[in-house]
Amino acid sequence: MMYLQLFWEFFKTGLFAVGGGMATVPFLSEMAERTGWFTPEMLADMIAVGESTPGPIGVNTATYVGYTVGGIPGGVVATLGLVLPSFFVILIVSAFLKAFRSNRYVERVFYGIRPASVAMIAAALVALLRICLVHTEALADGGIGALIDWRGLALFALVWVLTNLVKQTKKLHPIVFIAFSAAVGIVFRFAGA
User: Which of these, 47, 68, 67, 48, lies nearest to 58 by C-alpha position?
Assistant: First the structure.
């Protein structure tokens, strides 16, 4: 029964998350709240690791969640649930695309999908910012200063400046900044900061 639920949850995500891996984040966030399979903090970690490893973030996340919930079979079932909708949609679209390629209604549908994809990616950005930088649970304990994760915000600002404004570091490979951010995170974690 658990495998069927894993498959169904990720099948729905794969079916409706149009726009790539980051478009899955709102669905995964809602799934975390509903199923309890993972926390929002774990989702943020999965996204960070998924973005820094090869492969699509949605597939990496589905495999990880499936594995933690149901072992290797769970990882396979969740991954299949996520990718099968795309597989079937591509088969159907490719079969009809040649016949309807110049159809104005088909063109309008594809044109209408673009803003929806942008909105889903924007929702993913907002969800990630909320998970990574805003800690509403800390507001009661530490006052307004504990609401924002200032270290995370400072690291974001530093990496943004280095990748966009500083001429010497602007052309460095992204893996340099990923490794740098990971090292800073490890130092903060071990320092208890």
Answer: 47
51 contacts: CB under 8 Å, gap ≥ 6:
57, 178
Name the DSSP letter for residue 166.
Answer: -
Phi, psi angle pair for 134, to nearest 5°: -115, 130
Does residue 21 contact residue 82 with C-beta atoms inside 8 Å? Answer: no
d(CA 15, CA 30): 15
Structure tokens at 123: 């929702």
Cα separation, 182 vs 160, whole angstroms = 15
Helix (H, G, I), strand (E, B) or coil at 134: strand
Phi and psi, residue 148, nearest 5°: -105, 135
The structure's pTM equals 0.59
- pLDDT per residue over 101-116, tens digit each? 677 887 888 788 888 8
